[in-house]
Structures are given as C-alpha cells and as structure tokens.
Amino acid sequence: MEGSPERHSKKKVVAVVGGGLVGALNACFFAKRGFDVEVFETREDIRQAKIVKGRSINLALSHRGRQALKHVGMEEKIVSQGIPMHARMIHSLSGKQSPIPYGKKGQYILSVDRANLNKELLTEAETYPNTKLNFDHKLQDWSAETGLMTFVRPDGSTEEVEADLIVGCDGAFSAIRKQFLRRSRFNYSQTYIPHGYMELTMPPINEEFAMKPNYLHIWPRNTFMMIALPNMDKTFTCTLFMPFEEFEKITTGDEVIEFFQKYFPDTIPLIGADALRRDYFRLPAQAMVSVKCSPYHIGDKCVLMGDAAHAVVPFYGQGMNAGFEDCIVFDEIMDRFSEDFNAVLPEYTRVRVPDDHAIADLAMYNYIEMRAHVNSKWFLFRKHVDNFLHFLMPRAVIPLYTMVTFTRTRYHEAVERWHWQDKVINRGLLFSAAGAVLGGSYVLIKNPPDINKLISPAEKMWNRLVALRTP
Ligand code: FAD
Ligand code: EGU
Q1: What is the percent of the chain with per-residue pLDDT over 90, rounded to a whole number?
Q2: Where are the beta strands (DSSP E) in 272-325?
C-alpha cells in the first residue's frame, strides 16, 4: 500500500479554516483518510488559554453528533465526560417540577462542555502525524480562482497559504463564505431573531447539584424562557432567552430580582440574589442568527460546513449535531466518489442542502411556536400527547423530536413524515372523535373544565401506561 500510486496521489493538502467544534472534528475525518491537513484558527490555542470566551458554555449532544464522534473513535471519551439527561424537567410558575422522559430508558441526550469538547477534538486531531494546527491565524481573504488564502497574525503580518481543498468551518460569520457572496447564483439569507440570550451560573449547594442533575431543566414562559443544563463541576448553566427589548428594560439589580420574582421565582435562592444582581450586568445579551445558503461549494476548491453553511437558532439543540453530521455525510460521499473533489463537492451540496435547510426551518418554527403560546402547561400537554400517540401506534407515529434527536433520519424526511403524521392524526381524530365531541361538548358547556384537573389525570394515565409497557 505504501508505495502505491493511489496512496501517493492522495497526499493532497486540505485546509480546514476554523478550529471550532466542526473544524476540529473535520480535521480528524480528513486526517483519517490520509490527507495532509492544516487547520487555521483565529484564536490562540484554547488548551493553553486562561480564559475561554465564546458562545454557550454547554451544549446538548445527541445521536447525530455522537455518530460523527464514533467515526473518529471519540464517542466513548466524550460521552464519559458528559452528563446524561433522560428527561426534561418542566418548572411551572408555582415551582412545581414535572419530568417528561425523552423516550425509552436508554434514550437520553448529553450535556457536554463546549470548551472541553473543543479541546479534546483538537488534541485528537493532533495525534495524526499528517495534521498541523495553526493557531493565531485569522483568514482575511482568499481567491476562488487560485485557492490562495491570506491569513493575518496577531503582530499584523500576513501569510499566504495554498491548498487543494479549502473547508470553511469558520462559524456563522464565516470569512470563507464572503467569496461565495460575490458570485452569481449563490442564494443567501440571514435572519436575526428579536430574542437574545444570557448565561447565568447556578452554583452547587453543599457541594451538590442545586437541582436534579440528569435533566434538561426548562422554564417555559411564552416570550421568556429559561433552560438549564448540568455541568461536571456540579453547577448548572442557565440560559435566559428573551427579547432584547426586555433585556434593556432591566437596568438595576432590584429590577433583576423583581423580574425573576415574577417569572422564575424558584431560581432566585438557587442562583443567589446577589449573584443575580451582579451577573445579569456582566455581559450584554447575545444575539442569535439563522443563516441559510446554497450551494455549499465552489468548483472542486472549497466547501462550507457547520455554522458557516447553516447557522440555526438553538431551539432544537441541533446546531452542533447538524454540523457534526455534515462531516459524516461528506465522508460517505468521499467513499462513493473515490475522493474526487470534482464529483464529491456538487454531490455534497445536492444531498446536504435540503437537510440543513430543513433543520434551520424547524428550529425557527420551534422558536416561533414557543414564543407564541408555550407555557409550562401547554408544553407538558403537547409532549404527553406526542408520547401517547407514539405509545398507541409506535411504528406509525414517531414524535418529531425523536426523529430529530435520536435517529439519523434525514432532516427533510423527518419534516415530511411529521406533516404526513399530522394529516393521519387529524383524520383519525376527526372520525373517531366526531361523536365524542358532539356529545362531550354538551357536557363541557354545562361544566367548564379546570385545566389543572384535565392535566393531572392525563399524567397519571401516562405513568400507568409507561409502567405497563416496561415489564
Ligand atoms: P463555531 O463553533 O462558531 O467555530 C468557528 C471557529 O472558527 C471558531 O473557533 C472561530 O474562532 C473560527 N474562525 C472564525 N472566523 C475565522 C477566520 N476568519 N479565520 C480563522 N478562524 C476563524 N448546538 C447543539 O447541537 N446543541 C445545543 O444544545 C446547542 N446549544 C446552543 C445554545 C446557544 C445559546 C447557541 C448560540 C448555540 C447552540 N448550539 C447548540 C449551536 C452550536 O453552538 C453551533 O452549531 C456550533 O458551535 C457550530 O460549530 P462550528 O465549528 O461550525 O462554529
Ligand atoms: C436551547 C438552548 C425543549 C440548549 C426545544 C425541547 C436548547 C438546548 C426542545 C440551549 C425546549 C426546546 C430539544 C432537545 C434541546 C425538548 C428538542 C434546546 C437544548 C424540541 C444551551 N431541544 N435543546 N426540543 O424537547 O428536541 O426538550 O442552550 F425548550 S435538546 Cl426550545 Cl432533545
């Protein structure tokens, strides 16, 4: 194999621009294939950095992301450093907590530390002798004609680099993508949502987690929403989502407490009133953007992956997972087309664009839906209905989040199935419930129901059904 021409001709240079989550993982994928891989990253080496600034502290890792990690032999390591979340824990305004499982016993997502994941992936990439990591290299510009890239160093000097393939993994504000924008027939859309997010840390109490650790904690309050994911150091990272307008209305420590008292009262003693007053003003709220574009490639020279190709709003917990899946999809196409970039790149665009656009749309849809009318009761109700229908017809009806989170069903197919299921369910409901509605509405009009009384029997029924199912 060593001296064979295939092996020899393979020594093409792949430049991965961006050493974030997707770039670092992608470096492993290309290195595994024997390419000469060069990673270029603006920031210094985060493994040496004292303070790591950046977006969200922890993330939900699910099936698609795990499969990608498995391809490069990293799944076990990362999973062992994550915290399983078997269910959501819904916090109502009154402080009541209700768990809703993600699925069967073995189905869970993981809370992983972004910085740690990034470090592990960089270290893994470095174990390949054919990989070189170049930190403090900011891509300034590149030429789609020659493939020549210009990097700026912290001292202001520039460096020119050439590669056979350029892989743009430089995030939502991709510098690589700028050259795509100058070209004809490139589609691009970018939308900032009116919400911002702010991260707050909930410290341990008596060296233990302040809340139950193996859950994704959610406080759904229509326009306002908070989510908390556990960390290995027994803290929780709480992420508050709210319109920028509302963030700006709060200008003093007292107003912060007043706001939390109104919407998230159970969290005040857990985060700590003094910490809240202080931390709310530490950093301004961060923006969230959704980016869709196509094609993802230019000739046989350049391809976009991860947020550079598709930034999605975080309301499905899929941004990183989708970016990691990009790497698998590209890798599979490399197999099918014997690493011929001329054929691989267009095929990657053809296959991947519909799926990435589907998850971008789904995430945006979920954002709009949550904002419109999702309070804790509605959230509980909807998830119970989903799970109940799946229980009744386990093959025919699979909840959308299950297909998205726990399978590698192509995103666009998951959406199609979801629309189809909706039709079937609605038709089923129409026929079977028509009679009941007619009879029932008479009773309902006579005795208007209390939503509390409607929901708790549903919950009991659900628990009974779960007990029946798991022997
Ligand atoms: P990035 O992580 O942005 O990395 C890009 C890298 O490129 C950076 O290191 C940057 O320094 C470098 N770079 C940028 N410009 C240049 C340049 N000119 N030259 C060289 N290098 C450059 N996803 C999930 O799957 N699950 C979640 O639970 C989840 N939660 C989220 C919560 C929030 C609040 C947000 C905002 C996002 C969340 N995401 C989640 C999405 C996830 O963060 C992103 O999808 C993921 O980080 C994308 O990885 P990336 O490598 O493509 O981009
Ligand atoms: C948002 C911010 C619950 C991490 C969507 C669920 C998220 C995450 C949900 C963030 C929600 C919303 C799903 C997962 C996950 C749910 C999901 C959202 C992780 C539909 C660190 N979302 N997120 N859906 O089902 O499929 O639990 O910042 F509140 S994980 Cl918005 Cl599964």
Answers
A1: 76
A2: 286-294, 297-298, 302-304
- The protein residue whose alpha carbon is closest to atom 2 in ligand 1 is 20
**SS3 letters for 114-144?**
HHHHHHHHHHHHHCCCCEEEECCCEEEEECC
Rg (CA), the chain: 24
CB within 8 Å of 80: residues ≥ 6 apart: none
Q: From the CB of 227, is ligand 2 less than 6 Å away? A: yes
Mutation probe of ligand 1 site: the residue of 38, 56, 140, 325 with most atoms within 8 A of C-beta: 56
The 58-61 sheet, strands edge to edge = 58-61, 109-113, 83-85
Give, to the nearest 10 degrees, the angle between helix 341-373 and helix 411-446.
Answer: 20
Integer Cα distance of 239 and 17 in angstroms: 29
Cβ–ligand 2 contact at 64 (below 6 Å): no
What are all long-range contacts of 296-299, with beta carbons under 8 Å and residues at least 24 apart? Answer: 296/345, 296/348, 296/349, 296/352, 296/353, 297/345, 297/346, 297/348, 297/349, 298/144, 298/179, 298/180, 298/183, 299/144, 299/342, 299/345
Q: Ligand 2 centre and the CA of 278: distance in Å?
A: 27
Over the stretch 309-324, which tens digit does the pLDDT of each residue have?
999 999 999 999 999 9
pLDDT digits (tens, 9 = 90+) for 118-142: 999 999 999 999 999 999 999 999 9
Ligand nearest to the CA of 364: 2
Whether residue 295 has a cis bond before it, omega within 30° of 0: yes
Token pair for 372: 């419109």
Q: What is the pTM of this model?
A: 0.90
